[in-house]
């Protein structure tokens, strides 16, 4: 049985382009982001991949990315599950702020700690540890059982919700996952065994 999982961060959003902390705010894709999502779909199609089920977050940029990928694959009617458990990390009081402005307000070092520590949340927001605390139970309850049943699954989500999954899948430490950069619109392909352990993984960069 071919237990296939593809994780894909959404294409560039309007707020990525403006260098703003986005979190649970809901901007859509830029023209570049639309092209990144279409290119992701073309890469998956070139490998002959099709899917049985898709998961995405409650946010427009991830849903739009998924729709564009599925259109390229000719799978626009694929069953799709949307859940805020897969949303981006909530940046709290930083949401909507330009990253340079945030450094002026709170200091370079403090903003770096909020962005790159595992368990220190920004004011009113979530750390990566907090994000993992909602993403991983959802994975265990919903996505993993579907994979174990032999379904081929596509997940379109966000940099930090996907980091939480990658940390578990690849058995990475907090230090290792914080160094892992996820490019917008680049699918990561996993093949898993019957227990959900990773047999292989590959970044499908263009």
TrEMBL record:
What does the entry list as the binding residues for substrate? 9-16, 22-23, 61, 88-91, 99, 115-116, 159-160
Q: Which residues form the active site?
A: 10 (tele-phosphohistidine intermediate), 88 (proton donor/acceptor)
Per the record, the GO terms for biological process are: gluconeogenesis; glycolytic process
Q: Mind listing the UniProt keywords for this protein, alphabetically? A: Gluconeogenesis, Glycolysis, Isomerase
Protein family according to the UniProt entry: Belongs to the phosphoglycerate mutase family. BPG-dependent PGAM subfamily.
Per UniProt, subunit arrangement is: Homodimer.
The protein, known as: 2,3-bisphosphoglycerate-dependent phosphoglycerate mutase
| Source organism (scientific name) | Siculibacillus lacustris
């Amino acid at each position: 049985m071919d237990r296939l999982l593809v994780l894909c961060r959404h294409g560039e959003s309007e707020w990525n382009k403006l260098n703003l902390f986005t979190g649970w705010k809901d901007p859509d894709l830029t023209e570049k982001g639309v092209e990144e999502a279409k290119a992701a779909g073309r890469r998956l199609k070139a490998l002959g991949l099709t899917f049985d089920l898709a998961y995405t977050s409650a946010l427009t940029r991830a849903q739009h990315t998924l729709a564009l990928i599925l259109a390229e694959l000719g799978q626009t009617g694929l069953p799709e599950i949307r859940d805020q458990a897969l949303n981006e990390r909530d940046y709290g009081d930083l949401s909507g702020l330009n990253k340079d402005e945030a450094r002026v307000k709170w200091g370079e070092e403090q903003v770096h700690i909020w962005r790159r520590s595992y368990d220190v949340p920004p004011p009113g927001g979530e750390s990566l540890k907090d994000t993992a605390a909602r993403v991983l139970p959802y994975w265990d309850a919903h996505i993993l059982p579907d994979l174990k049943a032999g379904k081929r699954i596509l997940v379109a989500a966000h940099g930090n919700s996907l980091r939480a999954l990658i940390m578990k899948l690849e058995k990475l430490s907090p230090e290792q996952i914080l160094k892992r950069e996820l490019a917008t619109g680049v699918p990561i392909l996993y093949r898993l065994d019957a227990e959900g352990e990773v047999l292989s993984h590959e970044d499908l960069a263009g």
